[in-house]
From TrEMBL:
Record carries keyword Transport: yes
Keywords: Amino-acid transport, ATP-binding, Cell membrane, Membrane, Nucleotide-binding, Nucleotidyltransferase, Transferase, Translocase, Transport
Pfam families: ABC_tran, NIL
Protein name: Methionine import ATP-binding protein MetN
GO molecular function, one term: ATP binding
SUPFAM superfamilies named in the record: ACT-like, P-loop containing nucleoside triphosphate hydrolases
InterPro entries: AAA+_ATPase, ABC_transporter-like_ATP-bd, ABC_transporter-like_CS, ACT-like_dom_sf, MetN_ABC, MetN_ABC_transporter-like, NIL_domain, P-loop_NTPase
Lineage: Bacteria, Bacillati, Actinomycetota, Actinomycetes, Micrococcales
Gene3D superfamilies: 3.30.70.260, P-loop containing nucleotide triphosphate hydrolases
Organism: Arthrobacter mangrovi
ABC transporter domain boundaries: 2-241
Family matches, as SMART domains: AAA (SM00382), NIL (SM00930)
Signal peptide residues on this chain, from the entry's feature table: none
Length: 330
């Protein structure tokens, strides 16, 4: 549904070039939610602008729903954009218009009959949980309600694709979860394809099927959420399954272990302790459910003088990912 191939965007600042996107390629299948995560300055906002051709890429291609946007002429580009809904960090509603009029605005632009536009806007407000708020003005709405109006407006043109640029970063945690649940529900009900740009890993954990890490204009890690989470050596895994800081107790070997799937609920550590007659000390841990799969990330310490080799081998034989603390996973 969304295909980006070797996308580059270079800006000129005086006599020097700034590379904002450096060969970005990704595919988002129909009906899925893909997250792009990265720190400020990674190129996330530039990517959104290039996906809608609000900012023309320097090179590379963007295809959405089979339409090649990067080479489309004006009329074709406008038609393709109407199949893309945009949700922003701030709802950007028109203060002088009611919720109903804000949602109807995109339909007015394409000259839909007024009665038809208002009827559809009312249906969309009901869809996003705002039935009864049709005549409310933005100043009378909470932040979450404004975002719901923005989502309804994004759906007005019956899009195939939703591009969400930091859709919850201005909201409190409770409202954030409510909006994320709404986006996920709409994705399933309307068979949308969704690309979420965010710096919040909570958003990725909550709704995404797959994820890409953008750094310095490049995608450095990507894949299905379960796959990247299960890779103990990846940056994404360590961010999805963070461990609190904990100091070792003595000089025993410290290991990081990652359980996923069936191993997350199996008593593997206690079995290892019995097998090798060792007291294993858990220094830190986190447990998460990602894409309906359980993950457990622990930092454990063996007793001083214990041989770590047989323990590591046994854990790996049980399907557990293991690394020596401070080293790459294997």
């Amino acid at each position: 549904m969304i295909t980006v191939t070797d996308l580059r965007k270079v800006y000129r600042q005086g006599d020097r070039e700034v590379v904002a996107l450096d060969g970005v390629s990704l595919q988002v299948p129909k009906g899925s939610i893909h997250g792009i995560v990265g720190h400020s300055g990674a190129g996330k906002s530039t990517l959104v602008r290039c996906l809608t051709l609000l900012d023309a890429p320097t090179s590379g291609s963007v295809s959405i729903n089979g339409a090649e946007l990067s080479s489309a002429h004006d009329a074709d580009l406008r038609a393709a954009r109407r199949r893309i809904g945009m949700i922003f960090q701030h709802a950007n509603l028109m203060d002088s218009r009611t919720a109903l009029a804000n949602v109807a605005h995109p339909l007015e632009i394409v000259r839909s009959p007024k009665r038809q536009a208002r009827a559809k806007a009312a249906e969309l407000l009901k869809l996003v949980g705002l039935e009864g708020f049709e005549n409310a003005y933005p100043a009378q709405l909470s932040g979450g309600q404004k975002q719901r109006v923005g989502i309804a407006r994004a759906l007005a043109s019956d899009p195939d694709v939703l591009l969400c640029d930091e859709p919850t970063s201005a909201l409190d945690p409770k409202t954030t979860d409510e909006i994320l649940v709404l986006i996920k529900d709409l994705t399933r009900r309307l068979q949308l394809t969704v690309l979420v740009i965010t710096h919040e890993m909570h958003v990725i954990k909550r709704i995404c099927d797959s994820v890409s890490l953008l750094e310095g204009g490049k995608i450095v890690e990507h894949g299905p959420l379960r796959t990247v989470a299960a890779d103990l050596g990846s940056k994404l895994s360590r961010t999805l399954l963070p461990l609190p800081a904990a100091e070792p107790l003595g000089s025993g070997v410290v290991l990081e272990v990652l359980f996923s799937g069936d191993t997350a609920s199996a008593p593997v550590l206690s079995a290892a302790a019995r097998k090798f007659d060792l007291d294993l000390n858990v220094l830190a841990g986190s447990v998460e459910s990602l894409d309906n799969a359980q993950f457990g990330h622990l930092r454990i310490q063996l007793p001083e003088g214990a041989d770590a080799g047989p323990v590591v081998g046994y854990l790996r034989d049980q399907g557990v990912s293991v690394s020596f603390a401070g080293s790459e996973a294997a």
